[in-house]
Amino acid sequence: MKNFKDGVAVITGGGSGLGQALAHVAVSRGMKVVLADVQAEALEQTLEQLRALNAEAIGVVLDVADAAAVEMLAERAEAHFGPVNLMFNNAGVASGGLIWESTDKDWDWLLGVNVKGVANGIRAFTPRMLTAAAANPGYQGCIVNTASLAGLLTGPAMGIYSVSKHAVVALSECLYHDLGLVTEQVRTAVLCPSYVTTNIGQCHRVRPAELTNSNEPTRSQMATAALSQNNLNNGSLTAAEVAEITFRSIEQDNFYIFPTNEVHDLLRDRFKHIVEEENPDLPYAQSEFLNARRELLKEAISR
Ligand SMILES: NC(=O)c1ccc[n+]([C@@H]2O[C@H](COP(=O)([O-])OP(=O)(O)OC[C@H]3O[C@@H](n4cnc5c(N)ncnc54)[C@H](O)[C@@H]3O)[C@@H](O)[C@H]2O)c1
Questions:
Q1: What is the reported pTM?
Q2: In the predicted structure, residue 283 carries a pLDDT above the cut 70
Q3: Residue 52: inside a domain, yes or no?
Q4: CATH number, domain at 255?
Q5: Concatenated DSSP letters for 240-278?
């Protein structure tokens, strides 16, 4: 996709972190934006920032896990600005800890937002993009799903999050194949960042009451949260840098967007071990960072 100017971008999770940064880059490229977020206040603050830049921007408060609400988002965006060119299925939440300690509510919350939220976006926006493409040979669209490095690699104490992000990578690859059957005008991409300083460490702030656990967090969950927060605070790229890289990748029609290089060796190693039928802990033997994380977790859990 080469031309962003005067196009329309929809961004879920647009009130904070990567979504907010993507909104700023979209506006800097001359796009109109529709931001969706479950947090009304954060959404309004981001919209104010964008309008101060003379951007055309509207907001919709919704929960991406609610299919009907995402359908209404698509209707609203199109009614207000016309056909959508970029759809960022970006809203996401995280949790950690030993996989068997995760509750039914943990599974429902993470899979609801991270997986169903993306599926809802694909279902609501793809048919509209295909209609726009059929009506106008000059139309170009792209659906960009935010996964994570955790969508390509597994590690200790990041169970549901990693499962959900692997699902986002698979969902995106399936969408890529299916779009290839019907059009060249609508594309898709999957964004797989490593740690970026955002507010995801405080994502419990958006957890619905009916999906909140009544029990206290376990030792492994507390240890993982503390380690992840430390990693988030020390991310090697800012959200703004990741957003800029994402737009450049969309411009080049890249499907896999890896803002940092560290993934390549780890991925090669993971698949080499799968092909050679070796056990899964071996791929990480070479990673100082992942080994250190594992040792810190072991120590925290056994304390
Ligand atoms: N920060 C990182 O290190 C990192 C790394 C890899 C992937 N990601 C992914 O990036 C995406 C954005 O996260 P972020 O790091 O910017 O976090 P963030 O918490 O700063 O922003 C996420 C936004 O999504 C919104 N949101 C959460 N649940 C929602 C729901 N049900 N419906 C609508 N909006 C909802 C939040 O209110 C928030 O504004 C997520 O999918 C996350 O998994 C983040």
A1: 0.97
A2: no
A3: yes
A4: 3.40.50.720
A5: HHHHHHHHHHHHTT-SEE-SSTTHHHHHHHHHHHHHTT-
